[in-house]
Amino acid sequence: MADQIRITSISNQIIKEVRSLRNKKGRISAQSILLEGYRLVKEAVDSGAEIRYFIVSDSFLAKEEFFLSQVSNIRVVQVPDELFGRISETQTPQGIIAVAKVPIYNQKDIIKNASQVIVLENLQDPGNLGTIIRSADACGFDAVLLSKESADPYNPKVIRSTMGSIFHIPVIIVEDIYQVLDDLKARKVFLAAAHTRDALPCWNADMSGNVAIIIGNEGNGLSDMIIEKADRTIMIPMTGRAESLNASAAASMLIYECMRQRVKNKIC
Q: What is the largest CA-CA distance in the chain?
């Protein structure tokens, strides 16, 4: 095992840093994110995330020393179970937290080369964002692009709800979402905006090629400027009594429809 230390005080500087990563300001300052739970931490390690150090409880270390021996180049900070419970964000702590560097991506290269992306304008709910990232990963999308007003993709709730997909697909906060759409359109990427205005049923829109699905805010939908930039507005026809779908459900259906069309084209 690599460098290992034991901490018993909540006033220790490392513990203070871990607690600061619960908020966006702390994450930006440290350029680090908090990962909690065995499955999420293992997924991060297996995906090549840059782990700075682990925080483990006494009881976890007693049971899972083999796992830690497999990542012998990463520092391990051991703490009493009681202290771990005070820094954990879950009701039933599993005894392991990883502090990892925020992934860095080249936005220009991704926009230049991506064939299927999802663009989110002012999406606010962390659970919705995490689900969309997971769906995009599952269906082979190249990236998730967020307007700067959207939820923080490295919020612990977002990370947990991605179930590890945050490490499989680039998630990028863009400074100017309008310019990004212009850049995608210049590459002949079909801009499909999820909106009911003059909308085409999603299965009638050709999304088998290069495509960007655009999803708006949970309450207000897409802005007029985004709709104007889109090549087509698309909708999900519904035969039941529900008036609408939430953002993550709608996005996931549209993401799947893109994959279905692409797979069908390859088979045919």
A: 64
The number of CA neighbours under 13 Å toward the Cβ of 62 is 6
Strands (DSSP E) along 70-170, which ranges? 75-79, 96-101, 116-120, 143-147
Q: Which residues contact 86 (CB under 8 A, 6 or more apart)?
A: 10
Alpha carbons 182 and 36: distance in angstroms, whole number:
38
Tens digits of residue pLDDT in 97-136: 999 999 999 999 999 999 999 999 999 999 999 999 999 9
How far does the chain reach from its first CA to its final CA, in angstroms? Answer: 53
Query: Strand, helix or coil at 138?
Result: helix
Q: Which residues on adjacent β-strands are paired with residue 173?
A: 146
Q: What residues does each domain of the chain span?
A: 4-101, 107-267
What is the model's pTM?
0.91
| CATH number 3.40.1280.10 given to 107-267 | yes
Pairing label, strands 32-36, 96-101: antiparallel
CATH superfamily of 4-101: Ribosomal protein L30/S12 (3.30.1330.30)
Structure tokens, 109: 């290269």
Cα–chain center distance at 55: 23
Task: Report the percentage of the chain scoring pLDDT > 90.
Answer: 86
**Which tens digits make up the pLDDT trace of 219-250?**
999 999 999 999 999 999 999 998 889 999 99
Neighbour order of strands in the sheet with 190-194: 171-174, 143-147, 116-120, 211-215, 190-194, 232-235, 200-201
